[in-house]
Amino acid sequence: MMVKDLTIAIPTYNRNDFLIKILDTIPNNELVVISDNGGSVTEDIINKHPGFLFVKPPEKLEMFENWNFCINKVQTKWFIIPSDDDLFYVNAFSKINAAIEKYDDADIIIFGHNTIDEFDNVLSVWSPHEIKILEKPNGYNYFKYGVEARLPSIIFKTDFAKSYGFFDESYVFTAADSLLIQKCMLNGKAVLLPDIISAYRIWQNNFTSKYISSKEWLLKIDKWQDEIAQDVKIVYGNLNLTINSSHIKDEVYANNLLAGIVNKKSKYGFKEAFIFVKSVRFPWRAKFITKLKIIKALLIK
Question: Running DSSP on this structure, what letter comes out for residue 156?
Fold first, then answer.
């Protein structure tokens, strides 16, 4: 059974071994578009999936540019955009089909996911505890301190996501995905379902682990929070609601700062962790417990 009105959009860049794995978890009768950024996809992969659409950008694109290039090929009502190294589980698409039929008026539908390593070992599990249907703007509150859901388990309504420009290409290595998800959940109807339909892969010494202990990373976190705060102010104001965006901003910043301290300390020791903290601002408006965790991380070996 083919999922009606859904496209699986997969941006890829020089990872054929993993691209093969995710394509093998998608039924051949589904609508799939693969953006071959870099032109590395081989003929044998293309020939194995004759029903899938392989497109190549005219030039090498940055990550979020490639994501948007891929999504802009979508012509269906819904899309999902996994990375080329993620995986789908058996029955994932029957569950997606049932969800978009039942919740046709939703703007974003979110399932659970497993986090896996490069060897497919499950590292952690995340899913909503129960079915939640969140009308505007309550979806934002669900993820206001950080988006725990991951893209291979998120189904976007295409026109709705497009109205926000898909992924903000001014971001380089973080936050554009979280920003889009938050905008959709703030301004639309969000449905959260507890079924786990996909595996989201993380890598040892990946891009995040390299840059999370940097001033540049935290500046992007602040940029993300400032942008979503502008939307929150408008939406909440129109609904005569109040929210303290500055406290939320500092709590998100504090959690990222804490992760950066732990990462820096484990790799380079306490001295480098202190130097890192001194180079960035301190999130004074974060929760007391989070600030305490930061201090503890700096003081205890």
Answer: E
Query: Minimal CA–CA distance to 108: which of 168, 176, 179, 158?
Result: 158
8-22: average pLDDT = 96
Among candidates 153, 265, 161, 248, which has minimal Cα distance to 199?
Answer: 153
pTM for the predicted model, two decimal places: 0.94
Tokens 């988006």 label which residue?
Answer: 147
All residues at 6 or more sequence positions from 88 whose CB lies less than 8 Å from its CB, including other chains = 22, 25, 26, 82, 152, 197, 198, 199
Distant-in-sequence, close-in-space partners of 69: CB < 8 Å, separation ≥ 6: 11, 35, 37, 55, 57, 61
d(CA 197, CA 3): 14
What is the enclosing helix (H) or strand (E) of 163? none
Dihedral over alpha carbons 98, 191, 24, 180 (to 10 degrees): 150
What is the SS3 assignment for 14?
coil
Are 186 and 137 in contact, with CB atoms under 8 Å apart? yes
Q: How far apart are CA 253 and CA 218, in angstroms?
A: 7
**Residue 207: pLDDT over 60:** no
**Range of weakest confidence among 52-56, 168-172, 179-183, 281-285:** 168-172
Contact yes or no for 92/78 (Cβ under 8 A): no
Contact between 189 and 134 under an 8 Å Cβ cutoff? The reply is yes
Amino acid at 70: C
Burial of 278 (0-12, 13-18, 19+ CB in 10 A): exposed
Contact 261, 275 (CB under 8 A): no
